[in-house]
């Protein structure tokens, strides 16, 4: 009995392993089991302890049962997103103590049970968004997840967050909540989490915004709000909260502002003394810049040092006011980015009050040279060190250089992707300019307009044919995507450390090019360094590919099918049926040379000496000498009432018999008649017929054939039946 029990256990185990192999082969052979997008409606049976990653995403699984994952004790990642899971047994994950990632997003879970996660002591990443639950229950489903690092929650039906829902979580690197329809938030619900590095929340209810911010003042470093319409509210955001606060960065994405709400927000956010960075991406501002500057000024100094605005949409932006009265709010700002937002100028008076600004990024806007004179007026941006004016509409390099020369501390200038077209011989630049990016500016050459103080110069993508400037301090030179045929001389740039000359037309190197300092690092492609070797390797690879294709063609009879297709196309161009006057044979006989004795000495004698005699077409006797054999076959079939196939094992091994069978089959199908007569000279085993004889297999299954009898007394009946078939 013990042996029987052991045998049954082993048999069951082998059966499960076999089932696993059939369901998802990668689970059987690897530690990383990928069964995604396979249409599965169940978790594969037979999962073992060797599996560490199980991907079952994008299937049709509806239910997770207790025993499904019981043996997968070493699982580290379990991906179940985008299924139809609506129920999970309470102890389904009980054996997964080593699990670090669990993704149950985009399923049909109507509630979350704390029992699911009770034994996931190692879990770090949990994704639950995109289900159908409306809340997290009356208590916390996550109380046992002490190692949790990232948590993704919410869905379009998620509407309530209660106190205690996050008990047990102390530290999160990332918290993401889809609260697009969140309409009830109990104050203090998020306070139980002591530290959150980055929190993203999608909310549309403006009344909840302030409550959430108050709860997160001491825990979140970076708070990101999406799709919010800011409320008109004067209630303090730091009410009853003690300093110091932790929140340092606040991001708005796809948010909606008005002149009134943005004025009030500026006032309220000043109370968060820890806030150093504000960011607005893909937002909409409905207004003309008529902000309540008096109230903003009375509210005191802002502590924000970095402002980033990307792709803000301002209806009628050309009517936007110059923000007069905001001067006192910008003198502490250090970094400002306004990109892809249709900026065409900054009033001179406002620009002069950016007294502490070190970094200014205006890329992808509408700045032109005429407005740049106003934007960079004398006394503006006095501390500016880095300026990005790329992707604007600047046309004059001489004017652009002149205006930027008004910035005494500027050392980094990016004016790439402006269409200058021309470059003068002399330009006026900032005295301390070290970095200049002139890539993709359509300049036809480089002249002494380029400042000699540079340490880094980028003139890539300008179709330059030569480079011969004297730049004694230059350390990095980027000449990618030009038309250079020789390297720049080493003597004029003695301190060069980095030189990029990719995608040029270099074909020779002069001795002068290498008379400078030793080259530390050169990054050249294999083609540039070893062209002949690369060409040889390519030729060898092409030869091997051709050899492989020939082998595959031989193995899969591809040549056979190509030849067959060509012959078929030739046949299709001819009339489907020869005119009656051209039909001169009763039958064309298709047979193997190995069966010629029976055909020529038995069948031909019987039929051609009958009364009346039958006229047969034989390839040995009746084919036209010198004519291509395929044309002979086609013509003979077309000039015959019938095609008579003498089938044997020799026949199915003959290539030409295959052609004759196919051409007859085309005619049979084209005219929908009974042109083919089959004679089975000997029994043929199905496994003897090659796979390429698919038409023969089909004909033998659909048409009646005559079988040559071994007994002499039955042969008379065979001849009568054959003659009758030929006359029909």
What does this structure look like?
This protein is an alpha/beta fold. Among the domains are: 335-351 and 358-375 and 384-528, Leucine-rich repeat, LRR (right-handed beta-alpha superhelix) (Alpha-Beta Horseshoe), CATH 3.80.10; 585-727, Rossmann fold, CATH 3.40.50. It has a 20-stranded parallel β-sheet. The chain has a five-stranded parallel β-sheet with strand order 29-28-30-31-32. Strand 31 (676-680), helix 17 (694-702) and strand 32 (706-707) form a beta-alpha-beta unit. Helix 14 packs parallel to helix 16 (655-671). It is flat, with a radius of gyration of 42 Å.
Shape by Cα distribution: flat
CATH topology group of the domain at 335-351 and 358-375 and 384-528: Leucine-rich repeat, LRR (right-handed beta-alpha superhelix)
Mean pLDDT: 85
- The name of the CATH architecture of the domain at 335-351 and 358-375 and 384-528 is Alpha-Beta Horseshoe
Unreliable segments (pLDDT under 50, ≥5 consecutive)? 4-16, 668-672
Strand segment count = 32
Classified by CATH, the class of the domain at 335-351 and 358-375 and 384-528 is Alpha Beta
Question: What is the name of the CATH superfamily of the domain at 335-351 and 358-375 and 384-528?
Answer: Ribonuclease Inhibitor
Structural class: alpha/beta
* Terminal-residue CA separation: 74 Å
Number of discrete helical segments:
18
Rg on CA atoms, Å: 42 Å
Largest sheet: 20 strands, parallel
Strand-residue proportion: 15-25%
Estimate the helix proportion, in percent: 25-40%
């Amino acid at each position: 009995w013990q042996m029987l029990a052991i045998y049954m256990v082993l048999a069951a185990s082998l059966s499960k392993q076999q089932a696993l192999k059939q369901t998802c082969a990668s689970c059987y052979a690897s530690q990383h089991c990928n069964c995604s997008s396979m249409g599965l409606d169940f978790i594969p049976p037979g999962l073992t302890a060797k599996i560490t990653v199980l991907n079952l995403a994008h299937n049709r699984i509806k239910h997770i049962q207790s025993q499904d994952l019981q043996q997968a004790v070493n699982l580290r990642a379990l991906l179940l997103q985008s299924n139809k899971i609506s129920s999970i047994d309470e102890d389904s994950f009980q054996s997964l103590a080593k699990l670090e990632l669990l993704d149950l997003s985009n399923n049909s879970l109507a509630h979350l049970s704390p029992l699911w996660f009770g034994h996931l002591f190692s879990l770090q990443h949990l994704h639950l968004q995109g289900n159908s639950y409306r809340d997290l229950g009356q208590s916390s489903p996550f109380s046992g997840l002490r190692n949790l690092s990232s948590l993704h929650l919410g869905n379009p039906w998620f509407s309530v967050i209660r106190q205690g829902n996050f008990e047990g979580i102390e530290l999160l690197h990332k918290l993401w909540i889809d609260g697009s329809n969140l309409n009830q938030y109990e104050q203090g619900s998020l306070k139980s989490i002591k530290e959150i590095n980055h929190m993203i929340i999608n909310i549309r209810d403006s009344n909840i915004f302030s409550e959430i911010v108050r709860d997160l003042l001491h825990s979140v470093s970076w708070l990101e709000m999406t799709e919010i319409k800011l409320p008109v509210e004067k209630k303090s955001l730091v009410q009853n909260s003690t300093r110091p606060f932790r929140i340092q960065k606040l991001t708005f994405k796809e948010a909606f502002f008005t002149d009134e709400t943005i004025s009030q927000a500026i006032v309220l956010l000043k109370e968060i003394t820890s806030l150093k960075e504000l960011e607005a991406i893909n937002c909409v501002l409905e207004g003309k810049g008529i902000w309540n500057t008096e109230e903003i000024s009375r509210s005191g100094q802002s502590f924000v040092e970095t402002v980033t605005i990307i792709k803000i949409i301002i209806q009628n932006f050309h009517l936007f006011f110059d923000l007069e009265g905001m001067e006192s709010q910008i003198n502490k700002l250090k970094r400002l980015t306004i990109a892809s937002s249709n900026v065409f100028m900054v009033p001179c008076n406002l620009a002069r009050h950016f007294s502490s600004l070190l970094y200014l990024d205006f890329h992808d806007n509408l700045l032109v040279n005429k407005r740049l004179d106003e934007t960079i007026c004398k006394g503006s941006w006095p501390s500016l060190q880095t300026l990005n004016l790329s992707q604007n509409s600047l046309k004059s390099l001489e004017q652009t250089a002149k205006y930027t020369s008004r910035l005494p501390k500027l050392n980094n200038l990016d004016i790439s992707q402006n269409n200058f077209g021309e470059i003068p011989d002399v330009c006026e630049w900032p005295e301390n300019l070290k970095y200049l990016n002139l890539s993709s500016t359509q300049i036809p050459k480089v002249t002494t307009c380029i400042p000699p103080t540079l340490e880094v110069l980028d003139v890539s993508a300008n179709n330059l044919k030569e480079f011969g400037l004297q730049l004694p301090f230059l350390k990095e030179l980027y000449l990618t995507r030009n038309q250079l045929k020789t390297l720049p001389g080493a003597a004029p740039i003695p301190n060069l450390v980095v030189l990029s000359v990719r995608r040029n037309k270099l074909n020779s190197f002069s001795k002068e090019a290498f008379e400078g300092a030793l080259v530390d690092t050169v990054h050249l492609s294999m083609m540039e360094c070893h062209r002949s070797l690369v060409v040889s390797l390519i030729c060898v690879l092409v030869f091997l590919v051709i050899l492989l294709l020939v082998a595959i063609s031989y193995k899969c009879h591809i040549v056979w099918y190509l030849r067959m297709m060509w012959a078929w196309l030739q046949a299709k161009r001819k009339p489907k049926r020869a005119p009656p006057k051209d039909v001169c044979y009763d039958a064309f006989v298709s047979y193997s040379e190995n069966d010629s004795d029976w055909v020529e000495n038995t069948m031909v004698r019987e039929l051609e000496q009958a009364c009346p005699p039958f006229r047969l077409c034989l390839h040995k006797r009746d084919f036209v000498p010198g004519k291509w054999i395929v044309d002979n076959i086609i013509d003979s079939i077309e000039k015959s009432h019938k095609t008579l196939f003498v089938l044997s094992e020799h026949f199915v091994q003959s290539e030409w018999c295959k052609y004759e069978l196919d051409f007859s089959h085309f005619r049979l199908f084209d005219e929908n008649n009974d042109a083919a007569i089959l004679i089975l000279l000997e029994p043929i085993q199905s496994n003897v017929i090659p796979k390429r004889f698919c038409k023969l297999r089909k004909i033998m299954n659909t048409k009646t054939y005559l079988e040559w009898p071994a007994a002499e007394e039955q042969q008379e009946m065979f001849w009568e039946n054959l003659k009758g078939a030929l006359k029909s």
